[in-house]
Automatic annotation (TrEMBL), chain A:
Membrane topology designation: Multi-pass membrane protein
UniProt key word Transmembrane: yes
Family annotation (InterPro entries): MetI-like (IPR000515), MetI-like_sf (IPR035906), Phosphate_PstA (IPR005672)
Family label: Belongs to the binding-protein-dependent transport system permease family. CysTW subfamily.
Domain ABC transmembrane type-1 positions: 301-532
Compartment(s) of residence: Cell membrane
Transmembrane segments: 21-45, 57-76, 88-110, 116-136, 143-164, 184-206, 218-239, 269-289, 301-326, 346-363, 370-389, 513-534
MF term (GO), any: phosphate transmembrane transporter activity
Name recorded for this polypeptide: Phosphate transport system permease protein PstA
UniProtKB/TrEMBL annotation, chain B:
Top-level taxonomy: Archaea, Methanobacteriati, Methanobacteriota, Stenosarchaea group, Halobacteria
GO cellular component terms attached to this protein's record: plasma membrane
Positions of the ABC transmembrane type-1 domain: 122-334
Protein name stated in the entry: Phosphate transport system permease protein
PROSITE patterns, sorted: ABC_TM1
Membrane topology, record value: Multi-pass membrane protein
Entry's localization field: Cell membrane
Listed transmembrane segments: 20-53, 65-87, 121-150, 162-182, 194-217, 315-337
Any GO BP: phosphate ion transport
Top-level lineage group: Archaea
Pfam families on file: BPD_transp_1
GO molecular function: phosphate transmembrane transporter activity
Organism: Halococcus thailandensis JCM 13552
Function according to Swiss-Prot or TrEMBL: Part of the binding-protein-dependent transport system for phosphate; probably responsible for the translocation of the substrate across the membrane.
Length: 545, 349
């Protein structure tokens, strides 16, 4: 038992008791300052709270936290706190504060001391100071001197109004001008982040554990930032687009005779009067016309659906066929590796280049103008490499035992592929295809060049046309389900519609219409992604069970 | 897995009339599409009939030939893209000579007097890509380290779909937000003289390239064999020491491939730049003025294809060639370092 507690205390050393609280307080204050500065920078929060300047409050908090950090280091030096600092803080701290010193030194010498052309010298002095402070003292002192010192410096600058309300800085050669409203949050935010970083190292008792804690704080904050970016982007669009998108939705019930078919032997049918729901959603059901009370994006939705259908029905057979040939028939060697390099190259080819290719190759051959068919083909070329890559990966993941067992039963190679390999690889193929579809559904650049005509049409492409007729010429019966004329007409699509609202400047397209279009586009793309991710989860759990 | 035979013999194309017929009809389809695209429906119908016949009579052969045909079409597409881009850009190169890539003085872009220099656009692409890389590379690799090495299960379950969703947001939506929100913000807060700047484009493109870097770098980090890390941990290293001293160096090739692909994405990003920039085909003055306005290669094409014809159109294709070559180089480079990583780590990873 006693060894157990001994081990535990050795491992947890420094992370218990007053050190943890003091270090934790430094980290918390640093984090709060970062978040508050960020919000102040984007002007979500007001810069004066209850008569006091927000920046002064934040600067005071920084100074207090820096004092706390210095107290921790003094206590650690005098042996009150049990810590394990290294003899030096290491290169990462030196690199970070060398950079900070470089910027600060240049800034101070140019701004405060007024060295107009000598600022590089100041910058070098600052950098040297940062590096020396980080490397020369023992680790705990170095952390206090760099992180705490920079926080004190920034706090002092803010509190003593070195950067006051009238301050303005127009750097030589840059078009931008910096004002206190933007500069102070940046300064405070950087200082807060660095303080939180060194505070986390102090909280874990310096040394190896401290470095791990500091790094994990930064990396986790970065991950949280990515989530925050996603949430902010989506909620921004959702909040602004929701109103225009749902404007004018009406629904209700009306009574109508409904025919219920009954099983044979009973009555043939009964007719009862039942309520039916009717539903009208102008934004997704209407086109763009002067007579419309609310203009909608229905043509663009129809266009996007047809583009996706067309691209998928060309790219999936081609892509899966290529993957089957490369994996099952071809010798693994020069040929397959060349095709692989080619597909990877195609995958990263910029979308606008596909558009140019369509413009040069497809458009002159198909109708000599923008057309739905060209759009479909160009998007299918974009989808093709992704389908090949994912299908090939899925096929390679099918264990060779499957093929051998089938071959041992005397089954031909194609039969093996058809009934053993392809079914086993299907999940990967399907998932890859759906994720790829999500990408091409939002693609704008290529269709800009080959698909589009009028930006705000009243109706979408009318591609389905079921009909049967007798004709006077051979073969005397005409069955049609595709309206080939529509394939050769220009069309619109959701991403293009959004682009058009930005550039066209049509008088009656308000900004609300754009936000609504963006939201619908986002919903369509995310619907594809949700299906793709859900099917991957489903297949994963099915494989594991 | 298979017995060595010649390509034709192994495909069975020569063995059966179905294979020959399929080949002939496909060839006819291709030829008609190049020579007389209006008539393509007839060979296509013949091809379809042969396929249907083949499926009933000789399924194996038909499938093989169709798979081969799909491969050929894929390779053909890449070849055609290259050929058509280069062919269309030749007039511009003929007018300007090497000046199209190097002319920096005087008038740089003037379709009316047939002067086309891609230097401002190349500079714009370089600057935006640098800014984007400065954002996407460190943050993306850090995100990948978090997902692969540090995250608890719940955080990983949250982050991986989140990164995929970020990658899924269409570029025009990013561009729209940049245009409607960031441009006015920058104009107001930093008193920019023009609407739109390279800086905003770089930041937006950096956010867009971020998920690419994260997901590919995460794959690379996760594929480092567990025993390598176990050895380090068994020696008493902390998780973070193991990550920096063992995992990241072992995954270095994969991580750099991820960064290269991210750069490729940033170079080729079109819509954000098109929407945000104010389309001035001049070099910023001074060159390092990232808050100034110029043009990128992609936005040049997207903003001028509609009004261009003749030599101007050809100059746009030249911009496409520069883009295509750059990104292809990045892609091949990243594949090379990835293969090297596979060789270094070896085994079943």
């Amino acid at each position: 038992m006693s060894t157990d507690t001994g081990v535990a205390s050795a491992l947890d050393r420094g992370s218990t008791g007053p050190l943890r609280y003091a270090g934790g307080a430094v980290v918390a204050i640093g984090a709060i300052v970062v978040v508050a500065s960020l919000l102040a920078f984007v002007q979500v929060v007001p810069t004066t709270i209850a008569g006091a300047s927000l920046f002064d409050v934040l600067a005071l908090a920084l100074v207090a936290a820096a004092g706390c950090l210095i107290a921790v280091v003094v206590a650690a030096k005098s042996g009150v706190l049990d810590t394990t600092p290294d003899h030096t803080a290491g290169t990462s701290l030196a690199a970070v504060f060398g950079l900070v010193g470089l910027v600060t030194g240049g800034f101070v010498s140019a701004q405060t001391l007024g060295f107009s052309t000598l600022w590089p010298a100041g910058a070098l002095v600052g950098a040297a100071l940062g590096v020396v402070l980080a490397i020369v003292p023992r680790e705990d002192s170095a952390l206090a001197a760099t992180g705490g010192g920079f926080a004190l410096l920034v706090g002092g600058i803010v509190l003593t109004d070195v950067i006051g309300p009238d301050w303005q800085w127009q750097p030589e050669g840059l078009s931008a001008a910096f004002t206190p409203e933007t500069t102070l949050p940046i300064l405070l935010g950087v200082a807060g982040l660095l303080l939180a970083w060194v505070g986390a190292q102090a909280a874990a008792g310096f040394g190896t554990q401290g470095k791990a804690r500091g790094a994990s704080l930064l990396v986790s904050a970065n991950a949280a930032g990515m989530i925050a970016l996603l949430v902010v982007l989506i909620s921004f669009i959702a909040v602004r687009g929701w109103g225009p998108m749902t404007e004018g939705i009406r629904f209700g019930l009306f009574w109508e005779p409904v025919t219920w078919f009954q099983p044979p032997g009973w009555d043939k049918y009964v007719i009862i009067s039942a309520p039916l729901v009717w539903f009208h959603w102008p934004f997704v059901m209407e086109g763009f016309a002067i007579t419309n009370a609310i203009n909608g994006v229905a043509p663009a939705i129809v266009g996007t659906v047809w583009l996706v259908v067309g691209a998928v029905s060309v790219a999936i057979p081609l892509g899966v066929g290529t993957a089957v040939f490369l994996t099952e028939y071809a010798e693994q060697g020069r040929l397959t590796s060349i095709v692989e390099i080619a597909t990877n190259g195609l995958w990263s080819t910029p979308s606008i280049v596909y558009g140019l290719f369509g413009l040069a190759f497809l458009v002159p051959r198909i109708g000599n103008g923008s057309s739905l068919l060209s759009g479909m083909l160009v998007l299918s070329f974009m989808l093709l490499p992704l389908v090949i890559i994912t299908s090939r990966e899925a096929l390679l993941n099918v264990p060779d035992q499957y093929r051998d067992a089938s071959a041992a039963l005397g089954v031909s190679r194609w039969q093996t592929i058809k009934s053993v390999v392809l079914p086993a690889a299907m999940p990967g193929v399907v998932t890859g295809a759906i994720l790829g579809v999500g990408r091409i559904a939002g693609e704008t650049a290529p269709i800009l060049l080959v698909l589009t005509g009028e930006p705000f049409p009243e109706t979408g492409p009318d591609l389905l046309n079921f009909g049967a007729a007798f004709t006077s010429s051979f073969p005397f019966v005409e069955l049609s389900f595709l309206n080939t004329d529509a394939l050769l007409q220009p069309a619109t699509a959701l991403p293009y519609q959004l682009f058009a609202t930005i550039t066209a400047g049509v008088g009656d397209v308000g900004e609300g219409f754009s936000w609504g279009t963006a939201l619908v586009l986002l919903l369509v793309v995310f619907a594809f992604y949700a299906v793709g991710i859900a099917s991957r989860r489903y297949f994963d759990t099915k494989l594991q069970s | 897995m298979s017995v060595e035979r010649g390509l034709v013999g192994r495909l069975g194309v020569g063995d059966s009339p179905v294979g020959v017929l399929l080949g002939v009809t496909l060839l006819a389809v291709a030829l008609t599409f190049f020579l007389a695209p209006g008539l393509v429906i007839y060979p296509l119908a013949a091809f379809a009939i042969v396929v249907v016949y083949g499926i009933f009579r000789e399924q194996g052969t038909t499938a093989r030939v169709l798979a081969l045909a799909a491969t050929v079409v894929t390779v053909l597409v890449l070849g055609l893209i290259t050929i058509y881009l280069v062919a269309q850009s030749i007039p511009a190169f003929r007018i300007m000579g090497i000046d199209i890539l190097t002319k920096t003085g005087g008038e740089l872009w003037s379709p009316s007097s047939a002067i086309y220099s891609l230097v401002p656009m190349m500079w714009g692409t370089v600057v935006t890509t640098l800014i984007a890389t400065a954002i996407a590379a460190p943050l993306g690799v850090a995100g990948a380290v978090f997902i692969a090495e540090m995250a608890p299960d719940w955080a990983r379950g949250l982050l991986k779909p989140a990164v995929e969703a970020l990658a899924g947001i269409p570029s025009i939506v990013y561009g729209f937000i940049g245009f409607v929100v960031l441009n006015p913000f920058m104009a107001e807060q930093f008193s920019l003289p023009t609407f739109g700047s390279l800086f905003v484009v770089g930041v937006v493109i950096g956010a867009m390239a971020l998920p690419t870097v994260v997901s590919i770098a995460e794959d690379a980090i996760a594929s480092v064999p567990g025993p390598m890390k176990d050895g380090s941990l068994a020696l008493g290293a902390t998780d973070w020491q193991t990550t920096t001293a063992v995992t990241l160096p072992a995954a270095f090739s994969g991580v750099s491939a991820a960064v290269l692909l991210g750069i490729g994405r940033a170079v080729g990003e079109t819509m954000a730049a098109t929407v945000i920039l104010a389309h001035a085909q001049v070099l910023p003055d001074p060159l390092y003025d990232v808050f100034g306005n110029t043009e990128t290669l992609t936005s040049l094409i997207a903003s001028q294809y509609g009004i261009a014809s003749g030599s101007q159109m050809s100059a746009l294709f030249a911009a496409g060639v520069v883009l295509f070559v750059t990104v292809l180089g990045l892609s091949i480079g990243s594949q090379y370092v990835e293969r090297r990583m596979e060789r270094t780590l070896g085994g079943d990873t």
